[in-house]
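tool_call: predict_structure(chain=1)
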Amino acid sequence: MQRWILALLLVLTFSIRSYGYPEMVRHGYANCTACHVSPNGGGILTPYGRSLSQELLSTWGAKNESDFMYGFVKLPEWLNLGGDIRSLQQWQKNDSFEQAMFIFMQADLEAAATVSKFQAVATVGPQSNKTFNHAGGAIISRRHYLAYHPTDQITIRGGKFMAAYGINTAEHVIATKRNLNWDEGSETYNIEASYLGDHFDAYATVLMGRPEASYLNLEKGVSLRSSYLLKETSKIGASYFYGSSDLANRHVFGPYGILGITPHFFVLAEFDFQYRLAFGAPNSWGFVNYVRADYEFIKGLHGYLTHELTKLNWNRPDQTTQTFGIGMQFFPRPHIEVQSALQKSRDMSRSSNFATIAWVMLHYYL
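tool_result:
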């Protein structure tokens, strides 16, 4: 218990946003490094990224409010500190039951140290034994890596992080994440090379699994992703992944788009095919897709519609899942995000009827 209290106090003291919003492309920010230390986005913010959380994301904000510790603590230029606290209240009702559940999602501390062309990044925080990829213990480092920047456009890094594939979003429960086995705790040990130009980017990642937790059976393989900037406010790209585990080998590939239609309206869309070569079972073709259409009514207040469809075996109609819904996302002030959704969802392997799901997520960062 004392370790949990200590971890929570650390996060409350040193906390900023730890994941990104790919739709920032609509404001002309083509590369994630405009705001984040990580070349693939997400994770700890740069000072410039923190300032944009007030200027572009939040409805209200005072001078220096978006700064680390609200500007009361000044960090040396070589050091960034961050992290976030997220929790969720969920309600669902289906043919069998009605249930309400509170989920404490995450409370992590993150630090990034930069010396010349080298960077070291690491997180630490509590880990629930109810996570999809629980690796034992009450404390975990979800990400830690060393990076080298030979030029402003090229980064080479090695360590534990999520491989670059498709749209990088924190919503790990969406179809293109969970249904492709890239759920919570799916970070692996990798070596990655990336190039981020003004209009073109490319990532190549070699995945080495989780040697220290081989029982998780996370895949080894390779991931490739590339995208091109269109008209300064949209990106289209494609991804490819090959993974091997004790259960199967698989190829996953497909296009994605981050489309800034206007400064207030954007669309996130991803469509992936999967060819799975199972051991001791028939091979299978399938697909998964995710679409979100989002409109910002006033700065910081969004309404959106989503649709997800998964059919990972074309020969098995009962292995189809579908979800659609309406949601709201609100950034009232820097450091605070509130998101909620009302969804209809069905898994044909269980029932042809739709279940109703409603949830509210609170995210706080400093």
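agent: The first helix runs from residue 2 to 13. Proceeding to next step.
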